[in-house]
């Protein structure tokens, strides 16, 4: 029960809190935060001068509230139950990963090792399923719901068709937690928090330099997923850069960075 509550309520609490923190920032348009906005050439859709664009945005937001509620309140508990049953099946009998005694509590090494394993497996699963969703029309018809957002804000983070949610969000997470089933619940909890933070950070629309999910080696930048939403090509990863670098995904993104730099240099020489 404790494992279920921790795995189920934490993402919901995190999602609600993150949105509550971000909404005043989005509305306030403070220059301190706006300097980190990724798509600076685009106005935030709720401030768009065109009435029809604002109407479309609010329609999409209402759809997001419905889709997100279903994903977090129906699919997430179902996937959490699946995770618990899977881990119970895979672990030796009487192995109880919620014990806080010295024998079960993970050492800093075990904790770091298991979080790293979970991240590598999850990211691989996400990269593969996400790339497949853009390759095969039979899958893209579900994934295109997530791509209704061309300019992200935090409500885009869980805006996935239920089939897309099971395939690319829940599937890789259950796979990672199944393969690293010996990870202590506290390690799993830290990893779920980190994954949820990265998911929200991917869709926040700002590239905050202080973001705790972007500072370590091989981490992917927030601008990569924003680029993916803006043109629907490449950057198939989420938190890590390794699989895009190894198996492809950065071609168009790198070109766009070079083009932007050339444009900026041209502007500088003209002024
Ligand atoms: Zn996509
Ligand atoms: Zn996205």
TrEMBL record:
GO BP annotations listed: lipid biosynthetic process
Gene Ontology annotations for the cellular component aspect, listed alphabetically: membrane
Pfam family name, one: FA_hydroxylase
Alphabetical keyword list: Membrane, Transmembrane, Transmembrane helix
Fatty acid hydroxylase domain mapped to chain residues: 118-248
GO MF, one example: iron ion binding
UniProt entry tagged with the keyword Transmembrane: yes
Transmembrane segments: 12-33
Localization (cell): Membrane
The protein, known as: Fatty acid hydroxylase domain-containing protein
Source organism per UniProt: Fragilariopsis cylindrus CCMP1102
Lineage: Eukaryota, Sar, Stramenopiles, Ochrophyta, Bacillariophyta
